[in-house]
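Hello,

I think I submitted the adenosine-5'-triphosphate job twice by accident. Can you confirm which output corresponds to this input? Input:
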Amino acid sequence: MRLQKLILEQFRNYKNLELSFDPQEPMTYIVGPNAQGKTNILESIYLLALTKSFRTTKQQDMIGWEYEYARVKGIFEEDADEEARSESPQSLELEAFLGKPPNPQKSFKKNQVKTGAANFIGNCQVVFFHPEDLNMLYLGPDLRRAYLNVISVQVNRKYFSSLRSYLKVLKQRNALLHAIKDQRATPGELDVWDEQLVEHGSYLMFERAQTIQYFQNQLASTYQKISEGDENVKIIYHHTLHDIENPEELSLQNWRAHFSEQLDRTRPRDLQALVTTIGPHRDDLNFSFDGLNLAACASRGEYRSLLLALKLIELKFFEERSNQKPILLLDDVFSELDPKRQNLLLQAIEGHQTIITTTHLNDEAATGGPMRTHRNLNVRPGKYLEVSQGIIHEPTA
Ligand SMILES: Nc1ncnc2c1ncn2[C@@H]1O[C@H](COP(=O)(O)OP(=O)(O)OP(=O)(O)O)[C@@H](O)[C@H]1O
Ligand SMILES: [Mg+2]
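Support: Only one job matched these inputs. Its output is below.
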């Protein structure tokens, strides 16, 4: 997948922007001082891929302060089907519209036809990488679940709709637990919600187990390339069900059977706790080095290497699952990596459209040409765009 043109209307600090990407040049650098609008560009592309932002849950935040709505439009070209060589690449137009209260609508169009979020998501895939991703490795499990979800929804529509349904049913079930305590409802009323919780929740756990297994299979060798050490690094699916030895081997049907049976068993506990105590909403990912939990032993450098390894595996995962190369959005990450890791990343992304934001480029590098190093930042030839207060221009050489 390749982004050819990005059009922003009243999105963050861009009043009107029309940005064309060079079809011959996979690398685009967005360069400028702090707070000029570099990340905003990546956020708008992310919105087209995932129907939401990576840094706010309030869509209003993305609308220009003085305006009532924002519109983001992307024109893409799909990768040509290599098997059917004669087939020319398909063009794709994606549009997101965000309204502000009192008209807070959020709507999507694919090729100019209105479509729901479930059909919009996954048309274009992105691997987004920013320094704050490190938080995911050591802060709360909700960040790791979000990480898994962001990967899964982009390659699997059923995952997206199951997740949405699951969270809705979970909320209703939890409300019912309260109603039962207040004697406004009876425990028997839980049956119908439990059935749906099992239906959607089992699918989520089944898919997560498969995805984590894919990552696990690639992790040791990918990590070894990045880090000097020979730690045995593992990623483990931590789910809330008992008596499951190898989650990746469990069929969907068996996930259902286990979840259903255990949900019945934990019902008394849930009625006391007034929340649903098992299910994929409580899942986690555990990372370990030589059998020790990451938090107990990893250095900052090891965290960085692990995160980079995960990103490289993501790239492969998307490509294998969707037959399209994802677009890479790299937000200020190069300055966080040493030259060796910068080079590994550059090798891995070769041939992928990549949009990189950075504050660190000098005039010399901005003229392109062969690879130059500036402040330990490896720079490849590419298209350079300078951003200043929501205005983008190509630097004059
Ligand atoms: N809804 C909005 N309307 C108008 N301007 C906004 C809105 N939201 C953010 N901004 C402005 O956008 C700018 C920040 O943009 P962005 O986060 O893309 O900066 P950046 O170039 O990535 O900076 P840094 O290098 O610090 O990461 C700030 O000037 C902020 O005031
Ligand atoms: Mg930024």
